[in-house]
């Protein structure tokens, strides 16, 4: 039998109207698929850059670089943010750029193809404790939403079998349609809270990305919980504004 995680956080309907969850790496195990797709993409770009400039090839770190520059941000922002950190600025390009073009648009498209291939190959599983926590929130009358930068968010949520346990899914496609800026801007969290009828001070946010924690802090959310999946991000999550840090959702209980 799997060992039960000790409860580190208890939520109650008295204090909370709604719980807002990041998706990849918080409700589902898909952060590793995103990180691997980004690594394949960026290592190709960095190799080409090294060959063209004579500078040494320094690969993308799928843990540290992913967390600092890519995790939680809309796809194109991830391309710009990591490459800028390596001193590389690319033209924006357009959707009709050829796949090998060194433009933000072409790289974002290539990342999507790599991610979809990994998704088909490996599938999606709910993160430990995710389904049980969503069910407990529903029993307690605390509304639940997914707020994800990913334009694959709705499909990933459904593939994990968690769709029927949440009241709202606001993903990257919805944000683009509404013209809302992505994390670290607070707008997508604020929109989800508004739709669920919860004042930010009475909502809890669960996030594994510093950019997402920052978005929740800027939105004035009452309780911000960092999810430190790999046990290496607690300080960074607290520095970005997390009030508490857990390893998995199995550490969260809901008061009856
Ligand atoms: O490329 P997508 O699926 O639209 O996702 C955008 C971002 O969505 C976030 O949820 C992931 O943490 C990032 O890794 C990803 O880059």
UniProtKB/TrEMBL annotation:
Record's protein name: Beta-phosphoglucomutase
Catalysed reactions, semicolon-separated: beta-D-glucose 1-phosphate = beta-D-glucose 6-phosphate
InterPro entries from the UniProt entry: B-phosphoglucomutase_hydrolase, Beta-PGM-like, HAD-like_sf, HAD-SF_hydro_IA, HAD_sf, PGP-like_dom2
Pfam families, per database record: Hydrolase (PF00702)
Entry superkingdom: Bacteria
Membrane is among the record's keywords: no
Enzyme Commission number, as recorded: 5.4.2.6
Gene Ontology MF terms in the entry: hydrolase activity
Keyword terms of this UniProt record: Carbohydrate metabolism, Hydrolase, Isomerase, Magnesium, Metal-binding, Phosphoprotein
SUPFAM superfamilies named in the record: HAD-like
Cofactor(s) listed: Mg(2+)
Family: Belongs to the HAD-like hydrolase superfamily. CbbY/CbbZ/Gph/YieH family.
């Amino acid at each position: 039998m799997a060992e039960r995680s000790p409860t580190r956080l208890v939520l109650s309907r008295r204090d909370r109207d709604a719980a807002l969850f990041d998706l990849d790496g918080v409700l589902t195990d898909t952060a590793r698929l995103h990180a691997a797709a980004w690594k394949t993409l960026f290592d190709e770009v960095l190799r080409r850059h090294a060959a063209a400039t004579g500078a040494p090839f320094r690969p993308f770190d799928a843990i540290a670089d992913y967390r600092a520059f890519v995790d939680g941000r809309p796809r194109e922002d991830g391309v710009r943010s990591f490459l800028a950190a390596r001193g590389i600025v690319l033209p924006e390009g357009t959707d009709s750029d050829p796949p090998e073009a060194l433009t933000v648009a072409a790289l974002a498209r290539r990342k999507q193809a790599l991610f979809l291939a990994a998704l088909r190959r490996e599938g999606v599983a709910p993160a430990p404790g995710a389904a049980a926590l969503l069910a407990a929130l529903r029993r307690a009358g605390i509304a639940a939403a997914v707020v994800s930068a990913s334009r694959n968010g709705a499909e990933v949520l459904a593939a994990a079998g968690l769709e029927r346990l949440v009241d709202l899914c606001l993903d990257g496609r919805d944000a683009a349609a509404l013209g809302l800026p992505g994390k670290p801007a607070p707008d997508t969290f604020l929109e989800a809270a508004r739709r669920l009828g919860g004042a930010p001070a009475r909502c809890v946010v669960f996030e594994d990305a510093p950019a997402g924690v920052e978005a929740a802090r800027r939105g004035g959310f009452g309780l911000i919980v960092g999810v430190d999946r790999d046990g290496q991000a607690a300080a960074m999550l607290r520095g970005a504004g997390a009030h508490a840090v857990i390893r998995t959702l199995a550490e969260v209980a809901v008061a009856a």
